[in-house]
Amino acid sequence: MQPFDTGAAHERILRHVQQLIQLTEDEKAYFLEQLKPRVLRRKQFLVQMGEVCRFETFVVKGCLRAFAVDPKGQEHVVLFALEDWWISDFQSLSTEQPATLYVEALEETHVLQIEKKELEQLYLAVPAFERFFRLKLQNAFISFQNRIFSTISQTAEERYLAFRQRYPLIEQRVPQYLIASYLGFTPEFLSKIRRELATRR
Amino acid sequence: MQPFDTGAAHERILRHVQQLIQLTEDEKAYFLEQLKPRVLRRKQFLVQMGEVCRFETFVVKGCLRAFAVDPKGQEHVVLFALEDWWISDFQSLSTEQPATLYVEALEETHVLQIEKKELEQLYLAVPAFERFFRLKLQNAFISFQNRIFSTISQTAEERYLAFRQRYPLIEQRVPQYLIASYLGFTPEFLSKIRRELATRR
């Protein structure tokens, strides 16, 4: 595993945060002090169903998926996260109830984590972070709305093409059977769509 | 139609807001000044697909549904809103792109609306509203996560029962065929579930 590069990670998260809010030098220093680095091996879990999720997590490097498991043991991918994404079982983090999702690293992944109580303190110490996370949640909400709309109103092929266009990096880094699961397709059905698209080119 | 009772509406929204944040008398007055009352008849649209949604809307009295229309003209209920809910086409409001949803009053409905530019001003003038809407979005995000999880992991009957338990008021006020649409059932399938539940009591 690669060692965690704290300097580069801090630079990355500050650049990310400052796309939405302005911070003073003191606020930056305070924020960075709250963050804990963590390295996950491939297939290691960040969150496990049934355990309370206590961290908000920023992806510095790597790739993860969140998934739920149905009563038959079948996995369903709910979302992916790459560099510069935040991921957690948001419900569990907020309510302190056991997680209903798993979050698993798909490759070696470096993250910065902030514990719930430190995050609450951060909101009080640096209120600009209220704005930052409001805007992040706003975007997440919009992509949920998009996803519902796309499920309702687009054909399977259109949904696959929209996914590829919206998340080109995920398409390159994630195995096809997981993309199929995210889209609610069987792997065979996704292969069929891909073959049809290829012959039409 | 009943006249809009501004005093009662202001009292209601202040009570609602102050469950999550504290406001000074000046902040309350400033906030209330930004709000515009509106009365919708039954079947009147608050948001129409294709038009840019310019308002965030708080329901004082009444009931609405947000729905999308698929290419075959079939309607799909995305969410309901009752008293004390906020509703808009959030994507359209944020991005200023045309709405992908309709929002329609299911009964005579009284709302308070705040225009996007006044809302942006409000965030600057009263930063506690950043927190307020962050917490509101957080709850919305959690119910989306719940809904995805429930679709994946529960039987149709369990989903219907969970809906009834979670939203008892909606169950009482909204026609069954719209609840069927929200749950992704045909009306016939929902009737069948209800009959089965009734015979088991």
Automatic annotation (TrEMBL), chains A, B:
Organism: Larkinella bovis
This protein's name: Crp/Fnr family transcriptional regulator
Pfam families in the cross-refs: cNMP_binding
SUPFAM superfamilies to which the protein is assigned, alphabetical: cAMP-binding domain-like (SSF51206)
CDD domains assigned: CAP_ED
Residue ranges occupied by any Cyclic nucleotide-binding domain in the UniProt entry: 19-122
